[in-house]
Task: inverse folding
Protein backbone atom coordinates (compact mmCIF):
# COMPACT_ATOMS: atom_id res chain seq x y z
CA UNK A 1 0.00 0.00 0.00
CA UNK A 2 1.46 3.31 -1.08
CA UNK A 3 2.11 5.77 1.68
CA UNK A 4 0.55 9.19 1.43
CA UNK A 5 3.14 11.90 0.89
CA UNK A 6 3.27 14.44 3.68
CA UNK A 7 3.74 18.14 3.10
CA UNK A 8 5.61 20.56 5.37
CA UNK A 9 2.78 23.07 4.78
CA UNK A 10 -0.87 22.78 5.93
CA UNK A 11 -3.55 21.42 3.62
CA UNK A 12 -4.82 23.04 0.46
CA UNK A 13 -7.92 24.62 1.95
CA UNK A 14 -6.08 26.23 4.85
CA UNK A 15 -3.23 27.59 2.72
CA UNK A 16 -5.68 28.83 0.11
CA UNK A 17 -7.68 30.59 2.83
CA UNK A 18 -4.57 32.30 4.19
CA UNK A 19 -3.54 33.28 0.65
CA UNK A 20 -6.90 34.85 -0.17
CA UNK A 21 -7.04 36.62 3.21
CA UNK A 22 -3.54 38.01 2.71
CA UNK A 23 -4.31 39.24 -0.80
CA UNK A 24 -7.55 40.85 0.37
CA UNK A 25 -5.88 42.71 3.23
CA UNK A 26 -2.75 43.78 1.38
CA UNK A 27 -3.99 44.31 -2.19
CA UNK A 28 -7.74 44.29 -2.69
CA UNK A 29 -8.84 46.44 0.26
CA UNK A 30 -6.52 49.38 -0.53
CA UNK A 31 -7.51 49.25 -4.19
CA UNK A 32 -11.19 49.07 -3.29
CA UNK A 33 -10.78 52.06 -0.96
CA UNK A 34 -9.19 54.02 -3.81
CA UNK A 35 -12.14 53.33 -6.11
CA UNK A 36 -14.70 54.06 -3.37
CA UNK A 37 -13.09 57.42 -2.58
CA UNK A 38 -13.04 58.30 -6.27
CA UNK A 39 -16.75 57.39 -6.49
CA UNK A 40 -17.56 60.41 -4.32
CA UNK A 41 -16.89 62.54 -7.40
CA UNK A 42 -19.47 62.96 -10.13
CA UNK A 43 -18.51 61.84 -13.62
CA UNK A 44 -18.02 65.44 -14.74
CA UNK A 45 -15.81 66.17 -11.74
CA UNK A 46 -13.80 63.00 -12.34
CA UNK A 47 -13.31 63.75 -16.03
CA UNK A 48 -12.35 67.37 -15.34
CA UNK A 49 -9.81 66.22 -12.74
CA UNK A 50 -8.09 63.53 -14.79
CA UNK A 51 -8.01 65.56 -18.02
CA UNK A 52 -6.75 68.84 -16.61
CA UNK A 53 -3.79 70.21 -18.61
CA UNK A 54 -1.41 69.84 -15.67
CA UNK A 55 -2.50 66.23 -15.12
CA UNK A 56 -2.22 65.34 -18.81
CA UNK A 57 1.29 66.81 -18.88
CA UNK A 58 2.25 64.61 -15.93
CA UNK A 59 0.81 61.54 -17.72
CA UNK A 60 2.84 62.23 -20.84
CA UNK A 61 6.03 62.76 -18.85
CA UNK A 62 5.54 59.75 -16.56
CA UNK A 63 4.51 57.23 -19.20
CA UNK A 64 6.94 58.55 -21.80
CA UNK A 65 10.04 58.47 -19.62
CA UNK A 66 9.01 55.17 -18.00
CA UNK A 67 8.53 53.49 -21.37
CA UNK A 68 11.79 54.84 -22.73
CA UNK A 69 13.70 53.81 -19.60
CA UNK A 70 12.21 50.30 -19.70
CA UNK A 71 13.18 49.92 -23.38
CA UNK A 72 16.74 51.02 -22.68
CA UNK A 73 16.93 48.68 -19.69
CA UNK A 74 15.64 45.85 -21.87
CA UNK A 75 18.64 46.20 -24.18
CA UNK A 76 21.35 46.93 -21.65
CA UNK A 77 19.88 44.57 -19.06
CA UNK A 78 20.22 41.73 -21.55
CA UNK A 79 23.77 42.84 -22.30
CA UNK A 80 24.73 42.94 -18.60
CA UNK A 81 23.14 39.55 -17.93
CA UNK A 82 24.93 38.08 -20.96
CA UNK A 83 28.33 39.33 -19.76
CA UNK A 84 27.76 38.06 -16.21
CA UNK A 85 26.71 34.60 -17.41
CA UNK A 86 28.95 33.95 -20.41
CA UNK A 87 32.28 35.53 -19.35
CA UNK A 88 34.67 35.24 -16.43
CA UNK A 89 36.68 38.34 -15.56
CA UNK A 90 38.36 40.00 -12.61
CA UNK A 91 35.82 41.67 -10.33
CA UNK A 92 32.85 39.75 -11.72
CA UNK A 93 31.33 39.19 -8.28
CA UNK A 94 31.63 42.90 -7.50
CA UNK A 95 29.85 43.83 -10.74
CA UNK A 96 27.19 41.21 -10.01
CA UNK A 97 26.63 42.73 -6.56
CA UNK A 98 26.49 46.27 -7.93
CA UNK A 99 23.53 45.27 -10.11
CA UNK A 100 21.46 44.87 -6.95
CA UNK A 101 22.48 48.27 -5.57
CA UNK A 102 19.27 50.05 -6.70
CA UNK A 103 17.30 47.40 -4.80
CA UNK A 104 19.10 48.04 -1.50
CA UNK A 105 19.68 51.79 -1.84
CA UNK A 106 16.90 53.98 -0.37
CA UNK A 107 15.21 55.84 -3.21
CA UNK A 108 15.76 59.22 -1.55
CA UNK A 109 19.49 58.51 -1.29
CA UNK A 110 19.55 57.50 -4.95
CA UNK A 111 17.77 60.70 -5.92
CA UNK A 112 20.14 62.91 -3.95
CA UNK A 113 23.18 61.10 -5.34
CA UNK A 114 21.97 61.35 -8.94
CA UNK A 115 21.14 65.02 -8.49
CA UNK A 116 24.60 65.75 -7.09
CA UNK A 117 26.27 63.92 -9.97
CA UNK A 118 24.17 65.38 -12.79
CA UNK A 119 23.75 68.91 -11.41
CA UNK A 120 25.35 71.65 -13.57
CA UNK A 121 28.39 71.64 -11.24
CA UNK A 122 28.41 67.87 -10.70
CA UNK A 123 30.92 65.28 -11.89
CA UNK A 124 28.90 64.36 -14.96
CA UNK A 125 26.64 67.39 -15.13
CA UNK A 126 29.50 69.83 -15.67
CA UNK A 127 30.94 68.18 -18.82
CA UNK A 128 27.39 67.68 -20.12
CA UNK A 129 26.64 71.35 -19.52
CA UNK A 130 29.75 72.23 -21.51
CA UNK A 131 28.19 70.32 -24.42
CA UNK A 132 24.92 72.20 -23.98
CA UNK A 133 23.13 69.26 -22.32
CA UNK A 134 21.29 69.85 -19.06
CA UNK A 135 20.48 66.65 -17.20
CA UNK A 136 19.27 67.61 -13.73
CA UNK A 137 15.88 69.30 -13.38
CA UNK A 138 14.82 68.20 -16.88
CA UNK A 139 12.97 65.17 -18.33
CA UNK A 140 16.41 63.76 -19.14
CA UNK A 141 17.17 63.62 -15.42
CA UNK A 142 13.92 61.75 -14.80
CA UNK A 143 14.85 59.27 -17.53
CA UNK A 144 18.27 58.73 -15.93
CA UNK A 145 16.73 58.07 -12.51
CA UNK A 146 14.16 55.62 -13.91
CA UNK A 147 16.85 53.79 -15.86
CA UNK A 148 18.93 53.49 -12.70
CA UNK A 149 16.17 51.96 -10.58
CA UNK A 150 14.80 49.68 -13.33
CA UNK A 151 17.94 47.94 -14.65
CA UNK A 152 18.13 45.20 -11.96
CA UNK A 153 14.64 43.94 -12.82
CA UNK A 154 15.71 43.01 -16.34
CA UNK A 155 19.11 41.61 -15.35
CA UNK A 156 17.80 39.41 -12.53
CA UNK A 157 14.93 38.14 -14.68
CA UNK A 158 17.03 37.21 -17.70
CA UNK A 159 20.16 35.99 -15.87
CA UNK A 160 18.80 32.65 -14.53
CA UNK A 161 17.29 31.79 -17.91
CA UNK A 162 20.64 32.41 -19.60
CA UNK A 163 22.35 30.23 -17.02
CA UNK A 164 19.96 27.36 -17.79
CA UNK A 165 20.27 27.82 -21.55
CA UNK A 166 21.87 24.71 -23.03
CA UNK A 167 25.02 25.55 -25.01
CA UNK A 168 24.39 22.51 -27.21
CA UNK A 169 21.51 24.33 -28.85
CA UNK A 170 23.87 27.07 -30.04
CA UNK A 171 26.42 24.47 -31.17
CA UNK A 172 23.73 22.66 -33.14
CA UNK A 173 22.73 25.90 -34.86
CA UNK A 174 26.36 26.64 -35.71
CA UNK A 175 26.87 23.13 -37.09
CA UNK A 176 23.91 23.70 -39.41
CA UNK A 177 25.60 26.76 -40.86
CA UNK A 178 23.95 29.55 -38.84
CA UNK A 179 25.97 32.67 -38.21
CA UNK A 180 26.34 34.12 -34.72
CA UNK A 181 23.72 36.75 -35.46
CA UNK A 182 21.30 34.14 -36.84
CA UNK A 183 21.83 31.95 -33.78
CA UNK A 184 21.19 34.90 -31.51
CA UNK A 185 18.17 36.11 -33.49
CA UNK A 186 16.41 32.82 -34.21
CA UNK A 187 17.53 30.57 -31.35
CA UNK A 188 18.49 32.54 -28.25
CA UNK A 189 16.05 35.47 -28.40
CA UNK A 190 12.92 33.28 -28.78
CA UNK A 191 13.99 31.28 -25.73
CA UNK A 192 14.64 34.46 -23.74
CA UNK A 193 11.51 36.27 -24.92
CA UNK A 194 9.23 35.43 -21.92
CA UNK A 195 11.88 36.50 -19.41
CA UNK A 196 12.65 39.64 -21.42
CA UNK A 197 8.99 40.60 -21.41
CA UNK A 198 8.78 39.93 -17.68
CA UNK A 199 11.83 42.10 -16.99
CA UNK A 200 10.47 44.85 -19.23
CA UNK A 201 7.08 44.85 -17.50
CA UNK A 202 8.64 44.90 -14.02
CA UNK A 203 10.97 47.74 -14.98
CA UNK A 204 8.13 49.70 -16.57
CA UNK A 205 5.78 49.16 -13.61
CA UNK A 206 8.47 50.19 -11.12
CA UNK A 207 9.20 53.34 -13.13
CA UNK A 208 5.51 54.32 -13.24
CA UNK A 209 5.25 54.34 -9.48
CA UNK A 210 8.71 55.68 -8.66
CA UNK A 211 8.80 58.78 -6.50
CA UNK A 212 11.79 59.06 -4.18
CA UNK A 213 14.62 58.89 -6.68
CA UNK A 214 12.82 61.15 -9.19
CA UNK A 215 11.52 63.96 -7.04
CA UNK A 216 15.01 65.35 -6.32
CA UNK A 217 16.41 65.29 -9.85
CA UNK A 218 13.18 66.31 -11.61
CA UNK A 219 12.95 69.89 -10.39
CA UNK A 220 9.15 69.39 -10.10
CA UNK A 221 8.13 72.19 -12.44
CA UNK A 222 4.40 71.95 -13.28
CA UNK A 223 3.74 71.18 -16.97
CA UNK A 224 7.44 70.44 -17.47
CA UNK A 225 9.08 68.08 -14.98
CA UNK A 226 6.23 67.13 -12.64
CA UNK A 227 5.55 63.39 -12.54
CA UNK A 228 2.12 61.95 -11.75
CA UNK A 229 3.18 60.48 -8.39
CA UNK A 230 4.28 63.93 -7.22
CA UNK A 231 1.01 65.44 -8.43
CA UNK A 232 -0.90 62.88 -6.35
CA UNK A 233 1.19 63.76 -3.30
CA UNK A 234 0.49 67.45 -3.95
CA UNK A 235 -3.26 66.79 -4.01
CA UNK A 236 -2.99 64.87 -0.75
CA UNK A 237 -1.04 67.71 0.88
CA UNK A 238 -3.91 69.99 -0.13
CA UNK A 239 -6.39 67.55 1.50
CA UNK A 240 -7.97 67.00 -1.90
CA UNK A 241 -8.26 63.25 -1.41
CA UNK A 242 -10.95 62.59 -4.03
CA UNK A 243 -8.95 64.20 -6.85
CA UNK A 244 -5.79 62.42 -5.70
CA UNK A 245 -7.51 59.04 -5.80
CA UNK A 246 -9.07 59.88 -9.17
CA UNK A 247 -5.62 60.41 -10.69
CA UNK A 248 -4.40 57.27 -8.93
CA UNK A 249 -7.27 55.26 -10.44
CA UNK A 250 -6.26 56.35 -13.93
CA UNK A 251 -2.68 55.25 -13.27
CA UNK A 252 -3.96 51.98 -11.82
CA UNK A 253 -6.12 51.23 -14.86
CA UNK A 254 -3.29 52.04 -17.28
CA UNK A 255 -0.90 49.86 -15.28
CA UNK A 256 -3.37 46.98 -15.19
CA UNK A 257 -3.94 47.15 -18.95
CA UNK A 258 -0.19 47.28 -19.51
CA UNK A 259 0.47 44.27 -17.29
CA UNK A 260 -2.38 42.34 -18.89
CA UNK A 261 -0.95 43.06 -22.33
CA UNK A 262 2.52 41.96 -21.24
CA UNK A 263 1.11 38.75 -19.74
CA UNK A 264 -0.61 37.98 -23.02
CA UNK A 265 2.65 38.62 -24.85
CA UNK A 266 4.44 36.32 -22.38
CA UNK A 267 1.90 33.59 -23.10
CA UNK A 268 2.46 34.09 -26.81
CA UNK A 269 6.24 34.12 -26.40
CA UNK A 270 6.25 30.97 -24.24
CA UNK A 271 5.03 29.00 -27.25
CA UNK A 272 8.53 29.31 -28.67
CA UNK A 273 9.79 27.23 -25.81
CA UNK A 274 7.29 24.44 -26.34
CA UNK A 275 8.53 21.37 -28.20
CA UNK A 276 7.10 21.01 -31.70
Result:
Amino acid sequence: MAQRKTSPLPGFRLTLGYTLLYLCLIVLLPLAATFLKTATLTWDQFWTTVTAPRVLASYRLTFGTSLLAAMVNLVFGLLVAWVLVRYNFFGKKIVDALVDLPFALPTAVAGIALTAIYAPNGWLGKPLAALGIKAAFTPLGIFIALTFIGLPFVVRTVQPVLEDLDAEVEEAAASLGATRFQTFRYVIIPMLLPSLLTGFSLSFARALGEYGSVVFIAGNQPMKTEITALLIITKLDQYNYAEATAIAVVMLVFSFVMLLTVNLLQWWGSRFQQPH
Summary: The chain has one domain: 49-273. The chain has 13 helices and no strands. The two ends are 39 Å apart (CA to CA).
